Amino acid sequence: MQSLINKIKNSISLSSQAEEYIYSISKEKMVSKGEILIRAGQTVNKTFFVTQGSLRSFCIDKEGKEHTLQFAINDWWISDFMAIYNNEPASLTVECISDSDVIEFNAQKLNEIYIQFPEFEPFQRKNLERHVVSLHKRILNQLQLTALERYNLFLEQYPNIEQHVSNYHIASYLGITQQSLSRVRAEIAKK
């Protein structure tokens, strides 16, 4: 928990009351590889901050194919934000892909922090801005880059995650087949 508090304090001046509130609306959890934190179709009222480990969010299309939308590693947030903010059932599943430590927040109470502690708003606004930029880059990369370029960006963005995730997860994130991923890796190995 202290790592998150320190991260916040590096961005804004955090009062002791605001810090106490953060502790009161959260709980630290150890989650095991394979554990599902959010399941598609359920009501979502939680968001997670990863202090150590790795999680992923994914959806399943009508043909039963998985599509990984996000990996969350140390100091990243993850949830089904569409479900939270649109007050609808989850369209994503959030799965733990390595033994991890997370901080679980009640999403509604986390959202209320702005009312009680307006100084927290710039910190969260910056998080949301980074998230939107990240999503836009991801969409543009899927549309404009080759599989090799997307794979290299993946390795840059998620250093050391390959040891924790299956080839299937990486391929589904990149929007390619596992066979194409093997070809991309073979191409890199030739260089």
Automatic annotation (TrEMBL):
Listed name of the protein: Crp/Fnr family transcriptional regulator
Pfam families: cNMP_binding
InterPro entries according to UniProt: cNMP-bd_dom, cNMP-bd_dom_sf, RmlC-like_jellyroll
Start and end residues of each Cyclic nucleotide-binding domain: 1-131
Protein origin, superkingdom: Bacteria
